[in-house]
Design brief:
Blueprint: E1 2-7, E2 25-30, E3 36-40, H1 50-61, E4 65-67, H2 73-81, E5 85-87, H3 94-102, H4 140-170
Parallel strand pairs: 1-4, 4-5
Antiparallel strand pairs: 1-2, 2-3
Helix pairs in contact: 1-2
Length: about 170
Amino acid sequence: MRIAVSSTGRGPESEIDPRFGRCAYFIIIDRDSMDYQVHNNENMALGRSAGIRLHSLLRQRVKDVVITGNCGTNAMQTLSAAGIKVITGQQGNVKDIIERYRKGELSPASAPNVYARFGMGWWYGQRHGYGNGGGTDVDTCSQVQTLKGEIKATKKGINEILRRLVERLEK
């Protein structure tokens, strides 16, 4: 069984990225052997449908489970329709979360845990004219915690993009 985990870095010691569609990387891990592959998320800068576009990558390479911090409505519907279980609300490093999954401590979500386009940032979809009707009411403490994780992940993502640009310029 292969499991995809949204990640801020390139290895199992990396933190889980709280954003599904706009995570920096996906680490695809074999549950039993713990062998893994890292995939850059080429969709992280898209204006819309980043989570939905990841569907084809995950359907080809995973087929079983996705573990992430947050997953919005559209991505959840797309993954569920493909038979991929989604576990949301996770924080910490990838290796620890996989261990918890192996022990049976994690369960698939039955619904999205954030509104559509959540990874676009605080104002997008929050009843401020950018989200075609606004978001849903989500517990404020949960929002703050999620935003802190999103800020941390965004900083790491920006640093990684800068690192890649420097690498390309040096070639």
